[in-house]
Amino acid sequence: MTVRIAAAAYPITRPGNWDEYTANLRDWVRQGAETDAQLLIFPEYAALELVALLPAELHHDILGMRPALTPFVGRVVDLHRSLALEFGIAIVAGSLPVAAAGGFVNRAYVFGPGGAVGHQDKLMMTRFEAEEWNVQPGNGEVTLFTLGDLKFGVVICYDSEFPQLSRRLAEAGANLLVVPSFTETRRGYSRVRIGSMARALENGLYTVQAPLLADAPWSYALETAVGAAGVYAPADVDLPEDGVVAELGWNESGWLTADLNLAALTQVRGAGHVLNFRDRVAAQERPRLPQTLSLGQLQ
Length: 299
Hints:
The chain is of the alpha/beta class. The protein has one domain: Carbon-nitrogen hydrolase (Nitrilase/N-carbamoyl-D-aminoacid amidohydrolase, 4-Layer Sandwich). The protein is built from 7 helices and 14 strands. The chain has helices at 18-33, 65-87, 127-132, 163-171, 186-203, 262-271, 280-285, and strands spanning 2-11, 39-41, 90-92, 96-100, 103-111, 117-121, 145-147, 150-154, 176-181, 206-216, 223-225, 230-232, 244-247, 254-261. Strands 1, 2, 3, 4, 5, 6, 7, 8, 9, 10, 11, 12, 13 and 14 form a 14-stranded mixed beta sheet that branches. Helix 1 packs parallel to helix 2 (65-87) and helix 4 packs parallel to helix 5 (186-203). Pfam families: CN_hydrolase (PF00795).
């Protein structure tokens, strides 16, 4: 079974009104659908370009923009749902701050081609989110989304740098991890890319990174975002030797498409050169607490 996905390296725009935002997003979904992909993935915080529609005094007000964006959330959901229905395609929408449990979470909504709507909240917050923006982690709920034989979870940016969430999803049956990202530097992008590749290796599945691109000095929340869209797999039988299925160039905007051979993952997990997913329990249980042995002083 082969499934085609498309990851957006999405450049932030500065819409002048809701209609401009709608037209741009529809054009992106149309172009994504024209690749014959069955799943489109937008980056972390892509919906923050809606900050442009707020009063100018809120463009750099990192706390004030959160409640000001709240009236747009329902409209964003309705718009993406209508686009998923119009083009008959599944969409992981660009995330945005959403009011929840007395605070705000970083939420990515997910839409099915027949109208189903779900979401995944980010669980691990960066220092910027926690210390400046006061965005809190989700409550721990994790969703495995199914689209025919494709089973995927959404692992938002910093979440990809920790194995626990991805492992829970893999053990639930995931064969793809979707990693929407927003990174300001090449170091940040590299951390998410390395995390994505590691999660693919240890869990015997595909990962796809969809980065935000931004040169937006008009908003402190956005300012600079860099990266490259990429699709990764375990470097094992019938899969790329370097684990890279496909990548766009550095800061190259557009859709990156890839055909995912799901049968190859079954081969890797059951008869690969190594069996990382099978051996995950032993790797967790075998090491004991470290002992210390002094080797003397450095010369």
